[in-house]
Amino acid sequence: MADPKPTLKPAEMPMWMKVVVFYGRFAPSFTALGYVARGLPLRPLNASFKGQTWLVTGATGGIGRGIALGAARRGATVLSVGRNETALKSLAQEGGAGIVPMQFDLELVAANLALADEVMRRGSKLDVLVNNIGKLDHVHRLTPEGFEGTYALNLLGHFALTEKLVDAGALDDGVVVNMASGGLYNTALSLRRLEQKPERYSGVMAYAAHKRAQLALADRWTQPERRLVSYTMHPGWVATQGVSTALPDLERHLGRVLRTPAQGGDTALWLAAKRPSPVPGALWFDRAPRAAHAYAFSRKPEVEPEAIYAKLIADVARARSASA
Ligand SMILES: NC(=O)c1ccc[n+]([C@@H]2O[C@H](COP(=O)([O-])OP(=O)(O)OC[C@H]3O[C@@H](n4cnc5c(N)ncnc54)[C@H](OP(=O)(O)O)[C@@H]3O)[C@@H](O)[C@H]2O)c1
Fold first, then answer.
1. What pLDDT does residue 13 have?
2. Which end of the chain is more exposed for a tag (fewer CB within 10 A), N or C?
3. Strand residues in 96-171 grouped as ranges (E)
């Protein structure tokens, strides 16, 4: 019998083949085609969030805007966070009285802590927190607080904001939704990749590490004694400014079948409405818990989640003492 045909490993493939394999594997599920194939357009979410208060970060554009409008349309009061005054005004105009604009630049830890203070000052008890803000940046940049910019926006800020709200009891009985990405398939849980040196910086790997770490945070914030549940989700591939800027090739190849922001945010609204039992380590996508690994190499964590928490706690403390 003839030897079986040797198969190429990804590292040995020419670029065109890698591109075909990548899109062939993920596009049928992550684009609007997957949303339709799973029958979601035929299952509109009949939920009322009347009387609820939500906090949505990155609410002025893309998926965050879709979530804020979807929650407000269903009766929630949505504390909607953005940094751009004009974009906040336009959101409030479209979403009506349910949208409460809050202007904060969440790149700074100090701003995330100030936002938590402001939520509590208003006496707001939150039913839902959506940690949506996130960015893939191909250029290394430090924030004024000295942290790598995407680490600060994608992970450290979420941590500072959520821990403060959880510790104060502002999220008791509530739901936390962390907006991750299929980009986390690119790495195992990793400490070294959270903040990379400028000379070794890869925006794609930094983003992957931040998104992978968000999964670990979901487990930390699922606290039965507080009746608090936390989920980490993937929105699919969505037509947003973030994609246009960071992944122009994705937009060029798949622009016509990318999801709408409402479709990308659908699972966040569904999770808040249904509050399904948390599944440790699951990545929620299209209203179901899915595997958080597409490749064998990511299954073996480089560190335990405690090492990630320890860095986050130390970095928040560093930012606090610098601003004291
Ligand atoms: N789009 C996708 O296909 C996709 C796929 C997987 C995961 N995700 C995740 O989904 C989330 C949202 O992505 P997106 O594509 O909707 O992003 P986006 O189009 O870039 O929108 C992000 C929003 O956050 C705001 N923002 C950015 N930096 C800010 C800051 N420092 N302070 C306050 N607000 C700030 C932006 O406002 P400005 O206009 O002021 O910048 C904008 O309103 C991210 O976590 C992303 O990683 C997206």
1. 79
2. N
3. 99-103, 128-131
